[in-house]
Amino acid sequence: MTRRLLVWRRLGLRTRLTLLYGGLFFVAGSVLLWFTHLLTARALNQRFVVAVDKVGDGGRPTPAVSGAALPADSLPGGALGADVIARRVRTDVEQGAADVLNDVLRSSLIVMILVGVVAVVLGYLVADRALRPLDRVTETAQRLSESTLHERIALRGPQDEVKRLADTFDAMLDRLHRVFDAQRRFIANASHELRTPLAVNRTVLEVSLEEPAASEDLKALARALLGATARYERLIDGLLMLAQSEQEITTRRPVDLRQVVLTAMEQIGPQPRRGKVTVHEDLRPAVAHGDPLFLERCLVNLLENAVKYNVRDGEVWVRLREDDSGACLTVENTGPPVPPYEVGDLFEPFRRHGGDRIRSARGAGLGLSIVRAIAVAHGGTADARARPEGGLTVTVRLPR
Q1: Which residues contact 290 (CB under 8 A, 6 or more apart)?
Q2: CA contacts within 13 A on the Cβ side of 43
Q3: What's the rounded Cα separation, in Å, for the pair 48 and 375?
Q4: For position 68, what pLDDT does the model report?
Q5: pTM of the predicted model, to two decimals?
Q6: How many Å separate Cα 226 from the centre of its chain?
């Protein structure tokens, strides 16, 4: 019984409703057929079999010939012959009634099966029609992300249960949209507000370094503070870029990803030579629809991470392909071994290899977070896997 319930629950709602409609039809049809069989048998018994018993004189059955009852004495053999003929007539009538019942039952079963098949098909169509608004709600929910919260179901129709569900879902999306907008505005405003004091500090420190009367200790302290200020500025820039990349993409046009990759490689060009990292490229033509500046920033972050978190005399492989689903960019690098269970955490803000959230000498820990945010905002995905030899393989997929 439990196994049957599990099988029933694994079926889709549309299939369950179709089976329910079909089962109810066959149950109702079987009850109707049973009552029809009983009523038909009763009518045949009253109209034909009982009527034969009542024909005749003195309670003896007399067969009818051409619609006129003949006296039993006028038949050959007298009353005895009349009884024999009456029994034969009754037997023939009962047999005929039984044959009629069998024919009616057989024909009714065939008709019920054919109509049942039609009823199952119609039940599936009715269930599909009734569940179509729910499919729309499901498709919208699956399509939503932080960058597409502006979309709404906007279901039209009577104020039934499905319409109320869709309206409730839209109201929930309105609340979520307001919350995410407020969060992004706060990050952007805070980033802008923090830039001003950092710029002032940097100016003061640079002036102190140019002061001839400054001691060497003061200059060393100023250089250390300048380094810290630069890291904080990178952190603020990363936060601002993350907040912007999570917003809805307003500019969408065809972008030649091969050209964008080449531009991004030019921006990080000096770093491979300084860090002795060799970059191998295998770029094929690929086109994606989106914002060119955001896509360029996404690729720059990927390449910077691949070069920054590498080993001495390491290598980076950049591959660009296009298939039926869209463009696929893969950036693979040598580097220190990364446990597979830590790969997913690297896409979280401020997360670095080893779970370090303190050191920021090599970055703010926002590179891959920005990469994924930009990819998701363009309707794509960003995933990574650890290489057995060390390093990561990051794959970004963008739709056409």
Answers
A1: 249, 251, 252, 253, 255, 378, 398
A2: 8
A3: 84
A4: 44
A5: 0.53
A6: 49
